[in-house]
Amino acid sequence: MKIINLDYVNEEMSEKFNKFLATSPDYEPYYTLEENHRFKGAAIVEGQQIIAYIGLVLINDGNNLNEASNSNEDNNSNETNNYNNGMPKVYELSALTSKDYRKKGYFNALLSHILGQLSPKDKLIMPINEEFKNISCVSDYLYSEYLYVLKKDHFLQIRDELEKQSLTLDHYTAFTEDHTSFYLYLDNEDAASESDEIYGIDNEDISILNAMLSEDDEPAAMLNLSHTPSYSTIYGVFVDEDKRNKGLGFSLLFDTLDEFFNEYDKPLILNVTSTNIPALKLYKKAGFTKTSQVDYYAITSPMS
User: Fold this and answer.
1) Where does the pLDDT of residue 246 fall: very low under 50, low under 70, confident under 90, or very high at 90 and above?
2) Strand arrangement of the beta sheet that strand 90-97 belongs to
3) What is the DSSP pairing of strand 138-150 with strand 268-273?
4) pLDDT, average across residues 94-121
5) What confidence tens digit (pLDDT) does each residue in 34-52 have?
6) What's the rounded Cα separation, in Å, for the pair 149 and 291?
7) Rounded to an integer, what is the distance from CA 91 to the centroid of its chain?
8) How far apart are CA 174 and CA 4, in angstroms?
9) Who contacts 287 (Cβ-Cβ below 8 Å, separation ≥6)?
């Protein structure tokens, strides 16, 4: 039995890893199939099988927060902003131990191993359910992440009232194969001046966002939709800092909802953190309701 680093699952390890995942089909930890600086991992191997694995994904490199889905017109961040501006890196942790090997200290062994590869200043966070809140490595409660849902029938019931609160503003839409990005401008001239550039980009939506968020070509607000057959997800809601608190975010959100439910019957979902109060108010105002939550805790050394 030995611990190995498994930052990514290469072809050699693929069969072993897939067999390991099959031992717990209801849960899948973080992993990647190719080298990626945002991922770290380690596994315990016994003979020819993996019996335990721990995976980390970098969610904040100390300078840029990877939390666009919780941005909004008043607050483009959440509580992990405390680690920005050259502060420690923040990793979200996931782990899995095969059923027959649980409660034998393998998770603690992997956690100690992976912590030894990080800077002492780096932070680990993890979603924890009630069953595991009292284990030794679980430290302070940090925040909760809520799943919000809006269904078509509810939106149609409140649509007219929402429209009364929405500003009449021109917006501009760019499409990719699986995503929709809405860009709101303050006048038609702005939208027209960017149309050639936007439609000339064939990459994924993130390329479009980067192009539009350059220093010289920044929209007043934007919002993104990612589509699946059964639901669509809102993410990347953003309002230019100089144009916040003017109703632009709500107006763009309403316009997006109106167009979406005119075309689709499936629900819209989004994730938002408990400390992002302006975003919570925005989504509640638009008719979204909370359906579930996950609580995040700081993770420390098992010996702490």
Assistant:
1) confident
2) 2-5, 39-46, 49-60, 90-97, 123-127, 289-299, 138-150, 268-273, 232-239, 221-227, 179-184, 171-175
3) antiparallel
4) 93
5) 999 999 999 999 998 999 9
6) 7
7) 13
8) 45
9) 150, 154, 155, 158, 162, 257
